[in-house]
Write a structure and sequence with these properties.
Helix 3 packs across helix 12 and helix 8 packs across helix 9. The protein is an alpha/beta fold. The protein has 14 helices and 25 strands.
RNA sequence: UGGCCCCUAGUGUAAUGGUAGCACGAAUGACUCUGAAUCAUUUAGUCGGGGUUCAAAUCCCUGGGGGCCAGCCA
């Protein structure tokens, strides 16, 4: 609405400004015609676990670059280790990428589709004297490799004749040798300062069946001998990966150069780190396997399926990835940035409803017994086009326990004895008293209402400081509400006491289940996965797994920003 | 300890030898039938030192801090 007159100019400007380093590289290549104007990226997950928000950054980057520069992006499974990979994961990964909003068209690829080609290339390198079969054990290989400061030693098999290596390699493939007895190694430089270049293993023997190739192979190529060539086969232009592969780039280039094949280029960016959670696949697996969470889709997890179940939207995640940027600096993003991205999206799209998390009974003494009125509530105050709905009002209602105090602290402007507040979309009510149980807890509040304030405004123009939400007791629906907090107590889960590990930093209060919550009757048929704003509370997702008609379950995706909570906490 | 990479407001990210900007956060105020949203204002930065240059966040040297690498994982 406050856009300058020349809209297209500004958007073009926005697009050209603030390009991150990968975009700059792509634009330079495009300008110089490096790949005949082609841009072709790929997202290459290993199907050994579920995708998490860190992968989302990579997905948005790779698919985003392709979309922005009129290029293509492949989905490629890096499935070279049959002992860890499963079909369950490939299906889940495909679903998550699709859900995020990206399309790989007909370019669903598997590194395992290239096993024959990779084998031929390995033979080529042996023949060229650039690779050899090594009979060293895993332990011996490690000893020969040297350390960070000392060079390695040549393997005694390094100068084995090519014919012998060729024969041994064929017999490895034929299954003549047990696991771990031999490897195929590249002949590079055992004294290289970059340890990756110290005669890296190209193939290992693994008598394991593969999720796609079954038992066709008992030797499998290593990542380094697979990834670059896969990029080459797929005519990738920009092979984008995370920083820890920086040391591998010389090897990536070496294989491609020695093989004399089409050369893509690898670029590395910093992976995403978030406070109060953790991205390690190994650790996520442990949380799932040890039952610290309910599964890969536990809403407390940073997995995409967990975030989806929590109530995150693809748009929120994409916007988040956009705002955090892409660089080479190892940074940690505050979880609040992710939460903010969700609020931004949900604020626009989520219909508003009433939900009372912790109900407190209120009797409106001067409201006729048995009378029920239908009042009109807006589905989104800022978007009239989203319509209105009717909500029933009656003599006994529920309000939030937190909205009543026996005595008002400073700046508290909710319900207090003697004070008047507005019931949203209903009436002004004044508190006349309250009753307590033997334990001293307030179990009922007494009020009177002003019939002249129907709809929420007073004809005499008087104002109230507070507006609270409410639900007609007899018409409201019982619901289970799950409130989530950070998975870990510490911003950095690895910041733990002596002798303890990251598990000890798990937040024991990361899940709070409320079984007595109430929601308005319009939610009776709420669709699984539907998102709502419970006014004054937060955004809630109808749990897609556990919610059933008659037994509603809501997940709190994220709470609303809460100025009052800040004031109270500050005291 | 060897190699490689990195360091810009609290956080994240631009500026690629030429005015240090943006977003989020925070603070304050306005508005408000959501203590939300929205709007306005404010806040605060180039890791230290040296050099090159008319001019350095940017190039060079040096010190400091951080990350990655010694899987037959990816």
């Amino acid at each position: 609405m406050n856009k300058p007159p020349n809209e297209s100019d500004t958007s073009a400007e926005d697009a050209t400004e603030r390009r991150h380093f990968i975009q700059q590289i792509v634009e330079k290549d495009l300008a110089e015609g490096t790949y005949d104007g082609r841009v072709h990226t790929r997202f290459p997950p290993e199907p050994n676990g579920y995708l998490h928000i860190g992968h989302a950054k990579s997905i948005c980057l790779n698919f985003g670059i392709a979309a922005q520069y009129n290029g293509l992006c492949n989905l490629r499974f890096d499935d070279t280790n049959p002992t860890k990979e499963e079909d369950e994961y490939v299906e889940a990964i495909k679903e998550d990428v699709r859900w995020l909003g990206f399309d790989w068209g007909d370019r669903l690829c598997y590194a395992s589709d290239y096993f024959d080609q990779l084998y031929d290339w390995a033979v080529q390198l042996i023949k060229a004297g650039k690779a050899y079969i090594c009979d060293l054990s895993a332990e011996e290989t490690r000893e020969y490799r040297g350390t960070l400061t000392e060079p390695g030693k040549n393997s005694p098999f390094r100068d084995r004749p090519a014919e012998e290596s060729l024969d041994l390699f064929a017999r490895m493939k034929a299954g003549e040798f047990p696991d771990g007895t031999r490897t195929l190694r590249a002949k590079i430089d055992m004294a290289a300062s970059n340890i990756t270049m110290r005669d890296p293993v190209m193939y290992r023997i693994l008598h394991a069946s593969h999720h796609r190739t079954g038992d066709a192979w008992c030797i499998y190529p290593m990542y380094d001998f697979t990834h670059g060539q896969s990029d080459s086969i797929e005519r990738i232009t920009h092979s984008i990966c995370t920083l820890e592969f920086e040391n591998h780039r010389p090897l990536y280039d070496w294989y491609i150069r020695e093989l004399g094949i089409y050369a893509p280029h690898q670029y590395e960016f910093a992976r995403l780190n978030l406070t109060f959670t953790m991205m390690s696949k190994r650790r996520l697996l442990k949380l799932v396997e040890d039952g610290h969470v309910s599964g890969w889709d536990d809403p407390r997890l940073p997995t995409l399926c967990g975030l989806r179940r929590r109530g995150y939207t693809p748009a929120a995640i994409r916007n988040f990835c956009e705002t955090i940027g892409v660089a080479k600096f190892n940074s940690t993003i505050h979880m609040s940035v992710l939460e903010g991205a969700l609020r931004d999206d949900l604020n626009e799209i989520a219909p508003r409803v009433s939900g009372v998390l912790r109900p407190l009974r209120v009797v409106i003494e001067n409201y006729p017994e048995g009378q029920v009125e239908q009042l009109t509530a807006q589905n989104h105050p800022q978007k009239p086009e989203m319509g209105t709905r009717q909500v029933p009002f009656s003599r006994v209602i529920y309000i939030e326990q937190a909205d009543f105090r026996e005595e008002a602290p400073k700046k508290f402007f909710r319900l207090v004895p003697g004070r008047e507040v507005r019931l949203r979309y209903a009436y002004f009510v004044k508190c006349t008293g309250f009753v307590k149980n033997d334990a001293g807890e307030v179990i009922e509040v007494r009020c009177t209402y002003d019939p002249e304030t129907r709809g929420g405004s007073a004809p005499d123009g008087r104002k109230v400081k507070g507006t609270i939400h409410w639900l007609s007791a007899e018409h409201s629906l019982r619901a289970e509400v799950r409130l989530y907090d950070h998975l870990f107590c510490k911003a950095d889960p690895d910041d733990c006491d002596e002798g303890k590990d990251w598990i000890s930093n798990l937040n024991p209060n990361s899940l709070e289940v409320l079984t007595e919550s109430r929601v308005e009757p319009s939610l009776a048929d709420a669709e699984p996965g539907a998102l709502y704003q419970f006014e004054r509370q937060g955004y809630f997702n109808v749990d897609p797994v556990d919610s059933k008609p008659g037994a509603l379950v809501f997940n709190r995706a994220v709470a609303l920003r809460d100025q009052w909570a800040k004031i109270e906490k500050g005291k």
